[in-house]
Amino acid sequence: MSLLWHNTLGEKHLGVLSPTIICINASNFTTSIEGTLDPRPQIVFMRISKVFWRICNKMWNPLEIKSLQLNVSISLALLEMYFPPLFFDIMTHLLYHLVDELDVCGLVITRWMYPIKKYMKTLKLYVHNMAWLEASMAKGYIQDECIGFIF
Prior knowledge:
Elements: E1 4-7, E2 14-17, H1 18-24, H2 26-32, H3 39-55, H4 65-82, H5 90-105, H6 114-125, H7 133-150
Antiparallel strand pairs: 1-2
Helix pairs in contact: 1-2, 1-3, 3-4, 4-5
């Protein structure tokens, strides 16, 4: 089971990795699984949601890396009790490395690709002449800036 979710709210199937979705909608995630699962796996998913929330904060304490690593390992061990081995693919193993990456690289919010992908989608909407992609993007961007400046 892959953890790649698709956002279909107003956009054309924007594929976003689950850490981003859970960090953006951390409070909504925990309430959305509230009545669907058995209470024990539900608590495990809430623990994982809290780990993602702590990873994606704008400020973090380097001293809590060990507690994050411990929380991830305990949560995944608890998940192994409730789900079959087919559930665990490389994306669930990624949780271990996200915490290590936080320690090595710093804040996650400075390395997100989501704003760049969203801006590239905006630039792609400016393209009207497929022969001159860059020129169409530049022209559309300038028109948008001029309209924004006037109004």
